[in-house]
Specification:
single chain; 186 residues; alpha+beta; 2 domains; 6-stranded antiparallel beta sheet; 4-stranded antiparallel beta sheet; 4 helices; 35% strand; globular
Length: 186
């Protein structure tokens, strides 16, 4: 009976804190602890994080991704320019491995733990990306015909949006929301 109780407790804890991934519902500052005032980075909309613990209105999370050496940008996948985290100090990232892509580029597999507002977390990536789809339709077809979502791949959309973002008066949050929708379009 005791073993069953311990097993059930561990399973429940695993379910509550990190069994399934959570996703950032919006761009959100990442803090070193729940009471910190200065961010150590910014997690980007739809980035997957593992929930580790709760502290008041904040949740401790871990983001794992890939970084070109010494870059302040961490991507969700090696070789694919889907931004998951922007850090203030690249030296604060924990290196957990490395991967070489088909072009010979070495990507560091890195992680960073920190605290985000619990309200910035969501469980349904599809509904988070839906907001980007709606913005894409509303903002990106006013000056020209709307591009097909499949017209460019995940590594090309960022430069397209950089070029068009200013003309469409996109905020940083809107640009990332649209970009993440287009990069995840299938």
């Amino acid at each position: 009976m005791f073993v069953k109780t311990i097993t059930l407790t561990l399973c429940l804890a695993s379910f509550l804190f990190g069994a399934g991934g959570s996703f950032m519902s919006k761009n959100s500052p990442l803090f070193s602890d729940a009471s910190a005032k200065e961010a150590i980075g910014e997690l980007i909309v739809s980035a997957e994080v593992k929930e580790l613990s709760k502290s008041g209105e904040y949740t401790e999370v871990e983001f794992i991704g890939y970084q070109p050496k010494d870059s302040a940008v961490v991507y969700e996948k090696a070789g694919v320019l889907i931004v998951g985290l922007e850090v203030a100090n690249a030296g604060a990232l924990k290196v957990i491995g490395e991967k070489t892509d088909e072009y010979g580029t070495v990507w560091l597999n890195v992680s960073m733990k920190g605290f985000v507002a619990s309200s910035a977390l969501g469980k349904d990536k599809g509904s988070i990306l839906q907001a980007g789809k709606e913005l894409f339709g509303a903002k990106c077809g006013t000056c020209h015909a709307l591009h097909a979502e499949s017209e460019f791949d995940a590594n090309v959309w960022p430069s397209i949006l950089d070029a068009m973002g200013e003309q469409a008066a996109l905020s940083k949050d809107e640009k990332y929301s649209i970009m993440k929708y287009l990069q995840n379009y299938k």
